Amino acid sequence: MAHPTHQGPTSAFIAASWVALIAGALTYLIGLWNATMALNEKGYYFTLLMYGLFAAVSLQKSVRDRSEGIPVSGLYFSLCWTSILLAIGLLGVGLFNATLAPSEKGFYAMGFALSLFAAVAVQKNVRDVAAVKASGAGEPGGLG
Q1: I need a surface site. Which of 27, 34, 49, 56 has the fewest CB within 10 A?
Q2: Phi-psi category of 136—alpha, beta or left, where left has phi over 0 and alpha has psi -120 to 50?
Q3: In this structure, how many other beta carbons lie within 10 angstroms of the beta carbon of residue 25?
Q4: Sequence-distant (≥ 6) Cβ neighbours of residue 48 within 8 angstroms
Q5: Which Pfam families match (predicted)?
Q6: DSSP code of residue 138
């Protein structure tokens, strides 16, 4: 019986993931830079983006570690889930109470969501490429 080979993500998927991360974070940050809100409010939304990105990457890594049999403590795993839910919840509360136009609220929510999703995809790609290189199977970023 043939053993399955590990094939890394395609170059197109790697590029799309990075473009989505940069586009999501950059549009969110440009919107924040141009916003007429107070500096402390800008700091709140900036911190939520950074916290959310860290939480998303940490959660993805923890889930992947567990699926590969790498020990992850229950406390850390719970903290990852709590952090991602807190980041999303705090953004929701902040936007609900903000004196922004509904289109602006949607803009921040979508930029945040795109950034978190893309951060998970980038982290997955980094891990997949490393796994392919470690196994010596196939060329990461190939056409497959």
Answers
A1: 34
A2: left
A3: 20
A4: 87, 90, 91, 94, 112
A5: YiaAB (PF05360)
A6: S
pTM: 0.83
Residues 6+ apart with CB under 8 A from 142: 7, 8, 10, 11
DSSP-derived secondary structure letter, 143: -
Q: Which two tokens stand for residue 40?
A: 């402390």
* pLDDT tens figures, 32-65: 999 999 999 999 999 999 999 999 999 999 999 9
Residue 27 φ/ψ, nearest 5 degrees = -65, -40
Decide if 120 contacts 60 (C-beta within 8 A): yes
- pLDDT averages per 10-residue partition of the chain, 144 residues: 66 93 95 92 95 95 90 93 96 93 92 95 90 70 45
Q: Which residues touch 99 (CB under 8 Å, ≥6 apart)?
A: none
